[in-house]
Design goal:
This protein is α/β, with parallel strands linked by helices. Helices cover about 30% and strands about 20% of the residues. β8, α5 and β9 form a beta-alpha-beta unit. α1 runs parallel beside α6. The longest helix is centred in the last third of the chain and has 14 residues.
Length: about 190
């Protein structure tokens, strides 16, 4: 059984939390919600979900978990203003543990400064931020580049969740080959898991 952290603040995309969270639990893993504060409820942007974090980020370590999920919505924009949360995300990257970000969540990857030379996807409006952070952006349902797992939107959640569970059970995906020159900023044919 793996222990998987989900980081949340107000205005998270309800389904981008609920679907992977439920699938993680159905697979027999422990899902732990981490917030800036524990015990202070956070609300989904659609109002369907109100979640009370199990732990505050200042009281946990990436060493306590096997993987991290970052739901989208506006939550990642709030979370990237918290230095402890940014460090928590960066520590997962450095430990080479599965780090899954959907929709607007790659904003946290920008803030954690972990995208240089990596291939990712996201909601289209986040594309320029990711490219400016050194990533190669592609328009795919799910992209696995080593321990980074990214998807575009709620419609991609089945593939996103499957990639997360596969990496938790079988180990991280191979790193994608970095592209050269201008190719780094545009959609390119590549092997996507």
């Amino acid at each position: 059984m793996a222990r998987i952290a989900f980081i949340l603040a107000d205005d998270f995309e309800d389904s981008e939390f609920r679907i992977p969270y439920d699938l993680v639990k159905q697979a027999g893993h422990e899902a732990v919600v981490i917030g800036v504060e524990d015990g202070k409820p956070v609300k989904g942007k659609k109002g369907k979900e109100v979640i009370t974090p199990d732990k505050a980020v200042r009281n946990v370590s990436s060493r306590d978990f096997d993987a991290l999920v970052i739901p989208g919505g506006y939550s990642p924009d709030h979370l990237r203003m918290d230095i402890d949360m940014v460090g928590f995300v960066r520590d997962f990257y450095r430990a080479d543990k599965p780090l899954a970000a959907v929709c607007h969540a790659p904003w946290m990857l920008v803030e954690a400064d972990v995208l240089d030379g990596r291939t990712v996807t996201s909601w289209p409006s986040v594309r320029t931020d990711l490219i400016n952070a050194g990533a190669r952006w592609v328009d795919r349902e799910v992209v696995e580049d080593g321990n980074l797992i990214t998807s575009r939107n709620p419609g991609d959640l089945p593939a996103f969740s499957a990639a997360l569970l596969r990496q938790v059970d079988q180990g991280i995906a191979p790193r994608m080959e970095p592209s050269r020159g201008r190719e780094a900023t545009s959609e390119q044919p590549s092997s996507v898991h």
